[in-house]
Amino acid sequence: MSTYQFLSIIGVQALSAFIINFLLNKFVVFRSSKNQKDESIKDAILCLLRDSLLDLYYKSCEKGFANLADRENFEMMYKSYISLGGNGVIKEAYKRFSELPGKPNHPARRRTDKEVWNESDQN
């Protein structure tokens, strides 16, 4: 049986419908697996953000203040966390973090070896 005879029997429309249906099923399966992977990546990012936010919150509470760099980092991570669908636990931490007193973002100046030796010579 030739291809022409086969197409005449089943019809071009039926063959086209079969091919389209086959391709659509493959596309749906592909999109479904891609969506599951995307959802897993989103969940992983949420976990990392939550961990970083809580870590920064607890460290700042221990210090008793939050400097400018900490506040900017917390704010940026918090916005990302909320836009990804984060929950209310971090909202409460954000509220409490915002209430912490601020402190200038001046890193402690490290003493030079000469200053350390001079100090030890004087003692």
Biggest sheet, spatial arrangement of strands: 1-2
User: Roughly how much helix do the residues carry, as a percent range?
Assistant: over 70%
Separation, N- and C-terminal Cα atoms: 107 Å
Major sheet characteristics = 2 strands, parallel
Which geometry do the CA atoms define?
A: elongated
Average predicted confidence as pLDDT: 79
pLDDT < 50 runs, ≥5 residues: none
Relative strand content: under 5%
Order of helices and strands: HHEHHEH
The rounded Rg comes to 31 Å
In DSSP terms (H or I, runs of 4 or more residues), the helix count works out at 5
* Number of β-strand runs: 2
Structural class: mainly alpha
SSE topology:
Layout: H1 3-10, H2 12-63, E1 66-67, H3 68-83, H4 88-99, E2 102-103, H5 113-122
Structure write-up:
The protein has 123 residues and is mostly helical. The protein has a domain at 42-103. Helix content is 80%, strand content 3%. It has five helices and two strands. A two-stranded parallel ribbon has the order 1-2. Helix 3 (68-83) packs antiparallel against helix 4. It is elongated. The mean pLDDT is 79.
